[in-house]
Design brief:
By secondary structure, the protein is of the alpha+beta class. Helix content is 21%, strand content 43%. A hairpin with an 8-residue loop joins strand 4 and strand 5. It is globular. The model has no long low-confidence stretch (mean pLDDT 89).
Length: 98
């Protein structure tokens, strides 16, 4: 069970303003992979982004932390499994019908 609730989530749009709704990330082999920015939000002072690969199923998404370096946002992998689970569960709760 997540330690956050819907009331803790604030929808944001800093990445969309910086990059638009389409972003490209580099995979492990150095290839550029296009993604659609599905959502971005802040929880507990930390920003997160939800990206969907162009060939991904509707229920599949990638979840990243957003770290701001001055005015430039960077996406980083969520290393902590518990954090990833909490944030993914909260996002699902806020976006998927019951």
């Amino acid at each position: 069970m997540t330690m956050y609730s819907r009331e803790d989530l604030t929808w944001t749009n800093g990445l969309k303003e910086a990059f638009g709704s389409q972003v490209e990330l580099e995979d492990g082999e150095g290839h550029s992979v296009p993604y659609t920015l599905e959502a971005e939000f802040e929880v507990g002072g930390q920003a997160y982004a939800v990206l969907r690969g162009q060939k991904s199923a509707a229920e599949e998404y990638e979840l990243f932390r957003v770290v701001w370096k001055g005015d430039v946002p960077e996406l980083t992998v969520i290393e902590d499994d518990d954090e990833w689970e909490d944030i993914a569960e909260l996002y699902d709760e806020c976006t998927f019908p019951e």
